[in-house]
Structure formats: structure tokens, C-alpha cells
Specification:
Layout: E1 35-39, E2 42-46, E3 50-55, H1 63-69, E4 72-75, H2 76-83, E5 89-94, E6 97-102, E7 108-112, E8 115-116, H3 127-130, H4 145-157, E9 166-170, E10 177-181, E11 196-200
Antiparallel strand pairs: 1-2, 1-4, 2-3, 3-11, 4-8, 5-6, 6-7, 9-10, 10-11
């Protein structure tokens, strides 16, 4: 297939969505959480214990690509394939999917398709978990390994992970731990990128 990059699209030669496959559900009874959901310019993934929400502009996507990806589902196999792309593998996005090619070849080697969320099911209302009132607490129990997952994903998307740290907020002993970026970043056009958000559900101890 001859390469025909859409006028408003960009070409990329870097892996994307690295680490997100670690936070999607592996439970066959939860197919809607077995991949990532893209909505309103953010990519969201959760396994019901940990959740991430990342502005797609962190990955360099333009409004053209963001509009194409809106309300789409990226399954776990596709997440892994996109995160494993080599530096000599370029891609651009169109309605057919992620078009992979080698620079100078003039041809698309393969197309990695995605589907609409409606073809898989209804994604959980994750906003209801994020938007909770904050209150003082004495202690909270949670699995710290999920903070490591969130930190590793942040390192992949942040321009300066050391200088732009993460903030942890506690909403209560039975509410999730919320992790957000401290400072907003600017993209190459000096436009602010949206929030990076991670969430870890508490472990309830009887």
C-alpha cells in the first residue's frame, strides 16, 4: 500500500502508550476493561484497582488524530504492539488505524486497526471515582506496586519527569489515592497540555 499521509496528520517514529497494558484488566469477564478507552482527548485504562487518564497531547497527537481516536477502544494486544515499536518504524494515523512503515520505503507495511467503544460495550463511569470530596484521614491501605505502574507511565510521557513531579492526594480511608502532575507542561506550540491522572483503589481491611 502506497503511503498517503493525510494533510493534517503527523508522522511518528517512537513507541506510544508504553506501560498502559500493565493497568488494563486481565479478567475475561470484564472485556470493556481489557483495553484502553479514548474519550474527550484522553486515554483511560483501569483494572478496577488502578486507573490512569492521560491527555493524548502528551504523545504528540494533533487535533486531527485526537478527533479520529475519540470514543475508540485500543485492545491490550494493540497497546503492546504500539508500545514495542522500534525507532525505524514510523506510523501515521487515519480512519483505518495506525499505519506502520519504514522511512524511505514509500509503502505502508501494515495497518493496526482499532474499533469504536460501542463495539465492545459500555466503559465504566470512571469519573464518579475520581471526583470525590477530600477529607483528613489517619491511614489508608493500598498496594504500592500500582504507584510504580503510574510513575513508569508518567516517565514515558513527561518531557521532564524529574522537574515536573507527581502529587498524591488522599480522599479517605475507603476512597482512592489520586496521583496528578504538579505542573502543567507546554507542547511545542506553547499550548498547555492537560492533566495526567493516576488512581489507586484502597485495600479494605476488616
Amino acid at each position: 500500500m502506497k503511503i498517503q499521509i493525510p494533510e493534517n496528520a503527523k508522522s511518528f517514529n517512537n513507541p506510544i502508550f508504553k506501560g498502559i497494558d500493565k493497568v488494563v484488566s486481565k479478567d475475561a469477564l470484564k472485556p470493556v476493561m481489557s483495553g484502553a478507552y479514548i474519550k474527550d482527548g484522553n486515554i483511560v485504562a483501569t483494572d478496577s484497582h488502578v486507573l490512569i487518564e492521560i491527555d493524548l497531547r502528551y504523545y504528540g497527537f494533533t487535533e486531527y488524530e485526537i478527533n479520529i481516536l475519540d470514543d475508540c477502544f485500543i485492545d491490550n494486544d494493540l497497546l503492546k504492539e504500539l508500545s514495542a515499536l522500534k525507532r525505524d518504524q514510523w506510523f501515521f494515523l487515519n480512519e483505518s488505524g495506525f499505519n506502520i512503515y519504514k522511512q524511505g520505503s514509500g509503502r505502508v507495511n501494515k495497518v493496526l486497526p482499532f474499533c469504536k467503544m460501542s463495539e465492545v460495550g459500555i466503559y465504566p463511569n470512571y469519573k464518579a471515582v475520581i471526583d470525590v470530596p477530600k477529607k483528613e484521614i489517619d491511614c489508608i491501605n493500598f498496594d504500592a506496586k500500582y504507584l510504580s505502574f503510574i510513575q513508569n507511565i508518567w516517565r514515558e510521557v513527561s518531557l521532564n519527569p524529574a522537574g515536573n513531579g507527581l502529587k498524591i492526594e488522599f480522599g479517605g480511608s475507603s476512597r482512592p489515592v489520586i496521583v496528578t502532575n504538579v505542573n502543567k507542561q507546554l507542547d511545542c506550540n506553547k499550548k498547555e497540555k492537560g492533566k495526567f491522572l493516576g488512581l489507586v483503589m484502597p485495600i479494605k481491611i476488616d
